[in-house]
Amino acid sequence: MKIGVLALQGAFREHRWTLERCGAEAIEIRRPDELDDVAGLVIPGGESTTIGKMMVDWGLMDKIKARYAQGMALYGTCAGMILLCREIIGSDQPRLGLMDAVVRRNAFGRQRESFEADLYVPEFGAEPVRAVFIRAPYIEQVGPQVAVMAKVNEKIVIARQDKILVTAFHPELTQDDRIHQYFIQMAADKA
Ligand code: GLN
């Protein structure tokens, strides 16, 4: 299974290592044509305004949308989640906007710029997911096609819509590979 990791800025190497630990072939993506033979694409955390601008400048924005329409799965962590949401509160920055969700950036406030939490997610079994949040966003509202998979303080931090998965936190910074495994399975499932 070939999975791409958008390698413009941010924590892309950690995603590549995690995907490789899960047995996938992980490919760093910088050019549109490199998306042609991947079944899924991870959009990492980092700075969403920078990544979004580079996606436009490097011709990746339209290509990612076209490959999604053909069945490529998408997984966004943190900044990647922001870029996948339809509406970003208070910002008109470039985004893919493919998930019917409203997201707030840097949403947990100054006191909680970085924190960790245990999430109980039925899809991943009884063992909690240790989630690392770094200047994290959360989702405030979702449309009817979006499944909410986990919340922290009533804020949505994992969600899925069809072949799109988003997490507000960084599983690639832990040794818990269940979310990447779940995404690899999503990419493998034929639409
Ligand atoms: N605060 C960043 C943004 O708005 C996201 C932080 C992250 O990806 N860890 O883009």
Question: What does this molecule look like?
Answer:
- Helix content is 25%, strand content 33%.
- The strands form 3 sheets. A 7-stranded mixed beta sheet has the order 2-1-3-4-12-11-10. A 3-stranded mixed beta sheet has the order 5-6-9. It has a two-stranded antiparallel ribbon with strand order 7-8.
- The chain has 191 residues and is of the alpha/beta class.
- The chain is globular and about 40 Å long.
- It has one domain: Class I glutamine amidotransferase (GATase) domain (Rossmann fold, 3-Layer(aba) Sandwich).
- The structure holds glutamine.
Compact overview of the structure:
With 191 residues, this protein is an alpha/beta fold. It has five helices and twelve strands.
**What value does the average pLDDT take?**
96
Which H/E pattern describes the elements?
A: EHEEHHEHEEEEEEEEH
- CATH topology value: Rossmann fold
Assigned CATH superfamily: Class I glutamine amidotransferase (GATase) domain
Question: Helix amount, in percent?
Answer: 10-25%
The low-confidence parts are: none
**Total of DSSP H or I helical runs spanning 4+ residues:** 5
Number of strands: 12
Overall 3D form: globular
Structural class: alpha/beta
Largest sheet: 7 strands, mixed
Q: N-to-C terminal Cα separation, in Å?
A: 16 Å
- Strand order, biggest sheet? 2-1-3-4-12-11-10
CATH class: Alpha Beta
Which characteristics define this entry?
191 residues; alpha/beta; Rossmann fold; seven-stranded mixed sheet; three-stranded mixed sheet; 12 strands; globular; binds glutamine
